[in-house]
């Protein structure tokens, strides 16, 4: 993972706020990884913040889990685009998004 790269202060603050919302919602998080244009360093002013949320509680209904995560955003974290993963699914070597996250992601937790 691209943990040597850094996020801008503004992006890091939004990610931190979202992580706090996850904690308050009692969703156990194994890992939190920023990926996409923010992690690669080629984000535009209108780019969202892709965040992979890995939790043992996920893996049953990814759509519903994503909606649950999106409801945790507010006006200060509106750019967050959460992507839920169960550790088993994240480990799937045939999942192209998981591969992208592993290759370019910035591990937050």
TrEMBL record:
Location of the Polymerase nucleotidyl transferase domain: 24-74
UniProt xrefs under InterPro entries: NT_sf, Polymerase_NTP_transf_dom, Type_VII_TA_antitoxin
Domain of life: Bacteria
GO MF annotation list: nucleotidyltransferase activity
Protein name: Polymerase, beta domain protein region protein
């Amino acid at each position: 993972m691209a943990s040597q790269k850094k996020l801008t202060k503004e992006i890091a603050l939004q990610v931190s706020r979202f992580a706090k919302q996850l904690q308050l919602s009692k969703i156990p998080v194994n890992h939190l990884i920023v990926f996409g244009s923010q992690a690669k360093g080629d984000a535009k002013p209108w780019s969202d913040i892709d965040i992979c949320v890995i939790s043992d509680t996920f893996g049953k209904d990814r759509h519903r889990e994503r909606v649950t995560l999106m409801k945790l955003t507010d006006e200060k974290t509106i750019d967050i685009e959460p992507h839920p993963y169960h550790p088993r699914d994240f480990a799937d070597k045939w999942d192209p998004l998981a591969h992208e996250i592993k290759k370019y992601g910035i591990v937050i937790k």
